[in-house]
Design brief:
Blueprint lengths: L1 E3 L7 E6 L18 H16 L7 E5 L3 H14 L3 E7 L2 E3 L7 E3 L16 E3 H8 L6 E7 L6 H5 L8 E5 L17 H11 L2 E4 H15 L12 E3 L4 E8 L60 H10 L26 H12 L8 E3 L4 E2 L5 E2 L5 E7 L4 H12 L13 E7 L2 H10 L1 H5 L11 H4 L6 E3 L3 H10 L6 E5 L9 E6 L7 H4 L4 H11 L4 E3 L7 H11 L5 H7 L10 H7 L4 H6 E6 L2 H4 L11 E4 L12 E5 L6 H16 L1 H10 L32 H13 L5 E7 L14 H8 L8 E7 L7 E8 L3 H11 L9 H12 L9 E7 L2 H4 L3 H14 L3 E5 L10 H9 L3 E2 L5 H12 L5
Parallel strand pairs: 1-12, 2-3, 2-4, 4-8, 5-13, 8-9, 16-17, 16-18, 21-22, 25-26, 25-28, 28-29, 29-30
Antiparallel strand pairs: 5-6, 6-7, 9-11, 10-12, 14-15, 18-24, 19-24, 20-22, 20-23, 26-27
Helix pairs in contact: 1-5, 5-6, 7-8, 9-22, 10-13, 13-23, 16-23, 24-30, 26-28, 28-29
Amino acid sequence: MIRLDPRGLPNRALLVGVSEYDLTEPPHGVPGDLPAVKHNVNRLREVLTRGRVFGEHEITVARSPSLEHFERALLSAAAEAEGVLLLYFAGHGAIPSAGDELFLQMRNASVVAGGHAVFPGAEPFTTVLTMLATSPARRIVVILDCCFAGNAAWVRETLSDKHRLLLMMSVQANHRIDAGDPRTPTPYTAELVRLLEEEGGTGFLDLSERMRERMAARGLSTVRGDAWEPQWRAEPGEDVLLAAKPRAPERKTPEGSAEHPAKSSPEKHPDAAPHPHPHPKRSGADPDTPVPPPAPDATGPPRAPLTVRLLGHLRGLPGRDRTGRRAGGTGRTGRRGRRGTPWTVLLLGLLSLGLLTAGTYGVLGLVGHLRSGGTATVCAPPLELRVLTDPDLEPTIRAAADAHLTSAANTLDDGCRRTGITVYSAGSSDVVTALRKQTGAWREPHDVDTDRFNPQRDIGPQPDIWIPASRADVARVVEGQDTDAVAVPEAADKPLAYSPVVLAVPQAIAAEDLEGRTGLPLTRMIEQLSERDEKAVVRRPDPEFTDAGLLATIGLYGSDVPVGAAEHLVAQPGPPSPTAAELLCTLPDDEEVDDHTAALVPEFLMRSGVGCDSTTRTPRMAQYPMDVPGVAPVFVRVRWQGADRDGEARDASVAAFRNWLSGAQGEAVFAGAGFRRPYEWELMDPDTEVDGVLAAPSVLERFAGRDAMEAALKEYKEAGGPGRVLYLLDSSGSMTDLWEGPSGGPGLLKQSLGGLGGQDEYGVWAVADTGDRPYETLLRLGPHRRADAERTLDARARVRDAEADPRDALDAAFDTMEPSGTDSRPRMIVYITDGEDSDQLSRDRLGDVLSGARTSDVPVTVVSLTNGGCDPGRPDREIADASGGRCLDSGDDPGTALRDEVARTGTGEE
């Protein structure tokens, strides 16, 4: 992970605070004005200016804008930002009954309630993201301080390119929150300002995690009575500097002087000392917030918000929710709307008048609508299901979830939605490892900034449902699962669908007869392809990231061909494409490559296609290897220990989605994507002809076994035998600000050690010209236990008061890593640097480095810790290219990418 430092680039911050609304009266008004929001944008503007990432002229404040004014301001900021673009919004948020969109309500907003509520004068978050995506900014940060802010996370998941977007949300999905004392900023923004005010550099990831800690420490509750839990979303490894307030020099001042903070007056400096009385309306209120003393009757423990207490009183069930269960859950329960009594109708009327929502800043989309007989019902936000799937299956599963959302199966008797669904994907090997060995850390991560693998950060939230591409994945989890695991996978008996993994060959070089297209082992098909076209190559997606790649590897290793020779059949420069879809999509980048490259991909992609323009791709024919198992997605319920607070409702929602997905409507989605029926093997949609696909190929290796997948993955990691990696860690003085934390030089190095096993050899040199040679050996070249290596680095790695000489250091590294005799082990040099000394190399000295790189036969992976360090023409990029290696900078998720590069040379972590 590398934190982008945008200083020096054109940055823009748009701070939107809607404190006043034109329409607050029933029946179509928003819940009321939000005077606290005025303080939000004022304080935030001040702290960002002092933070020195945004100049004064780069910060725009939009105070209670209309929808049109907001859109103009957002598009203007988006067009001008090149470094970081920050959008902050505080105001009313609203959601429809399905909870699958978030509306940001501007000054001219109104609410038209009913079965399908609409929000004139409000901007859908989907539209906001569309406008933000037009920006050339390298990072886009969105901070939402409004009710239902957490629902924005679901909208973010629909983006095809999420790596630039970093999202902070004041509260979890489907929850309203109190805006607090009108004389001070809202609780969330008050904490945000305090953290940004701290000295030193403040990045998005650190800020997000500390916000969760600070809000938890304050013990605040949402309007529903649940714990108030801020949320954030970012792709692994993405971070950006948001403030860099200089550290004040230590100065001794006379006691009692105006500069002595201990003697400052609380009246003149209200934030200097805690006020003796917290705000009477908020449990856990910040002690720094100046408020009047409580009224004489304000005694006893903090009380639930007025709306919660009145709802409980009217129901006759104090402290219980609409289903009769005790309140205090996670806030993600799906509760059926209750048939209206006269008291309920009265309560809804009060809510619409704003009498009971004063101080909150949100409105539920389905406020209430009349049913037959004149009664009313309230639709609570639906329960949220989290569905984790294989990366190549994600588009299909997402389409199924979207169709299920509006289906009759997801609609309750009173017209409310039962469930909302979030679909996300992660590397298949990571998911199996997490469910097998790390469920405890997944449920309760101890340190989200740890150098080691963290499921919540690197995969996503705990899934309710897992849909892997093979039932064998479930068997792999169950067989090797820890005895103290807190998650239990329960797989359905039958796969949802089936798709063989095929060799998709350009039509001009494909086998012409049926015998050449079916009934042959994969290695024989590849040999025949090479006989037809001497330029032909075969590509396979990453076996560690998607099951399609691992299933293809089973066939590749299944013949009598040695593993090393089998890997040579699919060898390629650089890393493999992570998914089959991306593999097909990137081939057209080079017409010559596209015309001569066959791809091992699931057959359904030849029907449903990929995200690139199909008209630019070479037409392909599917060949069906007899020894490659197929993709067979299976529905798996994942039960988490201690997650039974809403267990009955969650089980019902999971069962409803499973039944729908395995029924006629779900089959229609799989049919449209190009899948086959399991056990019958025919196309689900036989009426639509797909070019290059056989209607009835011969008998294939239908399903993968657990042992076959485990063996193939192990052999893939060990292919080529143990490797040798030499790390060159730039330790010159210019690295001072790029040294600490997981995104610093040593942190990235330690993260990458996970790609090395006990038989691999590696060493670390500190590159700084401090004496007789251009480096110091921190860790000798040889095998090491990871824990021992990390302790050594923590003790010995430090910044030197010297410059680095990359030419002499790399020359010495090439000599050290030169193969000798029959030693054919894979090897690599990793150079982690800020690039300053590389940029200062003379053309002759750079030429010497490039000459050595071309002749060494050892690839150099350069990790540049500066923005644009790997741009074409930069020395670090030239060194990597000359050696046949890679250059990684902040646009490549360098933490993950470096680990992957090292893993391809090494044998994997012990």
